[in-house]
C-alpha cells in the first residue's frame, strides 16, 4: 500500500517546455545511488500565471534497509527537477526531506463501527488517502484484516465475518492506523466510518471535529509532523 505526495513547480522564466521530477527513497542517514535506480515523472502543466506544474507521487509506506536487513517506516526522500527550456536541459540542486509518520487510534465504545479508515492528505485535500484501521486483536493472518477489504471479492461475506469477529471482542474496540508525510508539514485528516453489517443497519460517514460531514473540507483535524 502507498500514500500520495503532491510535488509542484512554478515557472520563474519563459520558454519552459517540460519539467520532470527525479526522486529516490533511502533509509535514514543514507544517500541514493542515482546511477543504480530512481524514479522520474513528468509534472502536469496546470496553467496559471506564473505557470504551475504538479505531479502527485505514489510514496512507499516503508523502505528496505539493506545495511540492517529490515524495513523502516521513516525514511529520506531525495529529489531534483529536470527542466527543458528553449531547447536546452538543466537540473536543480538536490533536495532531501525526512519522511515521518503519525499513529492514530479511534475508540469505539459501543461496537457500532465495523469498517473504518483514516481519510487524510498532505497539506490540503488535493491527494487524499484512505488508511484502513484495525483493532490489533484481530489475528495478523486473518483474511478479514481491514487492509484486505479493497481487494476482497465477496464484500457481503467480508462484512458479515468482520462483524462477527468484532462482536466477539470486548469493548471498547480500538482501531489503529498510520499517516506519513515530510517532517514539518501539515496533514489534514478525518475518519471514514461505516457500519456495514447487518444489512438493514448499513451506514457510513466522514467524521471531523464538528461531527459528520462530506469528505474533505474544513471539518477536519490538522496534524503537524
From TrEMBL:
This is Uncharacterized protein. It comes from Paractinoplanes aksuensis. The lineage of its organism: Bacteria, Bacillati, Actinomycetota, Actinomycetes, Micromonosporales.
